[in-house]
Write a structure and sequence with these properties.
The protein is mainly alpha-helical. Helix content is 61%, strand content 0%. It has one domain. Helix 6 packs across helix 8 and helix 11 runs parallel beside helix 20. The two termini are 19 Å apart.
């Protein structure tokens, strides 16, 4: 044995997407070609995580440049200009409309106009207020409103950039051997285009950090972060549902209970200081969600526009959407318990969040941010991811062209209702397409690109490699224990990587 040779088991090398994915290999030609057999993964300063973070910063900056026409003038001169240039953002408009320009305190002070209180969850309201404080440091309260709105958008953009980097880095580190999958997040065009429309990135960042903590087996930290994310946006709490079913199948109820207690405690710590002294302002988000009419991006809007249904009566839609969501969750639970192999946590997390968006009364363009990191973990295949992203980019353009049409008066510049309905159908179909592939991977685990590398559940934490203790139907006869070898597939690509590692 040569001197200095270690007997310790060697960590398997990082998975190189350019060796497994033809689209990734073709795209890599722009930066020098696929990963070579003599390349050293993670060598030098240019580690995968650092590269992903820098790419995320660059794409976020491009998204800011895309908003430049609005920043210069379109937000402030007529309604249709910000739509025809596809650079709309809620942030500068709500600076005045939600009382930040007047120094009002969210949830405690009533607003002027239709909204009596701020209609956002508490942690998002705090984020908005912090951006307002930063704005006040660089502008005068007596200055022109346009300049203050621009400064407010910039302050929010800077804070959201931090969130974007956290999302990319956490996604890169969640699957230890697949850090390059996070480039799906960093390079996602819909991510860059919608990042500064609203404040969704805060909840997405907390959720991505929670997924990373669960991967590392830190269940308390996972629960705390999910609780904080739920205090910023409602959707992260849905991830606890798939986790419950997976822990049920693996018999890991203690881990789930710890996570649940952490989430509940963190949510209460954030909400109680507002809930108790200002209950009316605190509950505005929840009452607004119930009373909100059928809105942009949902299939309910297509039905409403085509048939005239649900006009002025939101209660049937609330009931129908809840029923559809319950049915979808039941189907996801059945998949988790009856699949021949326990589905990966990221797969079910993606499915439950997608189900919530698809059945909701509104599917705003920025909701794609909720799905991008989960999609990169659930289905890291460039072709399928880009098909979905293309649908979302088409919808991103479609909604602004439709709003331009409705606000341009007799000029009718933009996309009429029929065209907008087609755009809605397209982005719904794109999301359903990705969901179908994730379901197929769960039912046919040999088709799962993550498990093709010999892994079980890299995002599963305590579930990774755990034996099943409760399964349903066919899964009971084909269940796998942690001691059984996991089959490796991949054909020529897999063999090529093994040869490269061994030096042949």
């Amino acid at each position: 044995m040569p001197p200095g040779t270690s007997l310790a088991p060697q960590e398997p090398p990082d998975v190189a997407p350019t060796r497994r994915d033809r689209i990734a290999a073709a795209g890599s030609e722009l930066i020098g070609g696929p990963f070579g057999r003599w390349a050293v993964p993670g060598g030098g300063w240019w580690t995968p995580v650092r590269v992903v973070a820098l790419v995320a910063i660059g794409m976020f900056a491009l998204g800011m440049v895309q908003k430049l026409p609005c920043y210069d003038w379109a937000w402030f001169r007529g309604a249709s200009s910000q739509y025809t240039r596809a650079c709309y953002s809620d942030i500068p408009h709500l600076f005045q409309a939600r009382g930040f320009s007047d120094g009002l305190v969210p949830y405690f002070d009533r607003l002027n106009g239709d909204m009596d209180y701020l209609e956002y969850p508490v942690l998002t309201g705090l984020f908005m207020e912090v951006a307002s404080w930063i704005t006040s440091l660089f502008t005068s309260g007596d200055g022109d409103l346009m300049g203050r709105e621009q400064a407010y958008w910039m302050a929010n953009a800077a804070m959201l950039l931090v969130c974007a980097v956290i999302i990319a880095v956490c996604t890169a580190r969640t699957h230890r051997r697949r850090p390059w999958d996070a480039l799906l997040v960093a390079l996602a065009p819909a991510f860059a285009l919608t990042a500064t429309i609203n404040w969704d990135l805060l909840a997405v960042a907390l959720t991505a950090a929670a997924m990373l903590m669960w991967t590392r087996g830190r269940t308390v930290a996972f629960g705390i972060l999910i609780g904080l994310a739920t205090a910023a946006k409602l959707y992260p709490v849905l991830i606890l549902g798939p986790l419950l079913v997976l822990c049920w199948r693996a018999g890991r109820f203690r881990a789930f209970g710890t996570a649940l207690l952490g989430a509940a405690g963190a949510w209460l710590v954030v909400n109680l200081p507002v809930m108790l002294p200002a209950p009316e302002g605190w509950k505005k988000f929840y009452t607004f969600s119930q009373s909100r009419p059928v809105d942009f991006g949902s299939f309910w809007l297509i039905i409403s526009q085509r048939t005239g249904a649900f006009n002025g009566d939101v209660h049937p839609v609330n009931t129908y959407s809840i029923v559809l969501m319950v049915l979808a969750c039941a189907g996801i639970a059945a998949l988790a318990l009856a699949a021949p192999r326990r589905p990966r946590f990221a797969q079910l997390a993606f499915l439950v969040v997608a189900a919530f968006i698809l059945t909701n009364k509104v599917y705003s363009p920025q909701y794609v941010l909720w799905l991008v990191p989960l999609a990169a973990l659930a289905r890291p295949r460039w072709r399928d991811f880009l098909v979905w992203q293309a649908c979302e980019v088409m919808y991103f353009l479609g909604i602004w062209m439709y709003l331009a049409y409705t606000t341009s008066g007799d000029a009718h510049k933009g996309l009429p209702a029929a065209g907008y309905q087609l755009a809605i159908a397209l982005h719904l179909a794109g999301t359903l397409y990705l969901c179908a592939l994730v379901v197929r991977d769960a039912l046919l685990p040999e088709r799962d690109p993550v498990r093709a590398d010999g892994a079980d559940d890299p995002s599963g934490g305590v579930l990774d490699g755990a034996p099943d203790v409760f399964v349903v139907g066919e899964a009971a006869r084909g269940r796998r224990t942690a001691e059984e070898p996991v089959p490796r597939i991949g054909g020529a690509d897999e063999a090529a990587e093994r040869d490269a590692v061994s030096g042949r």
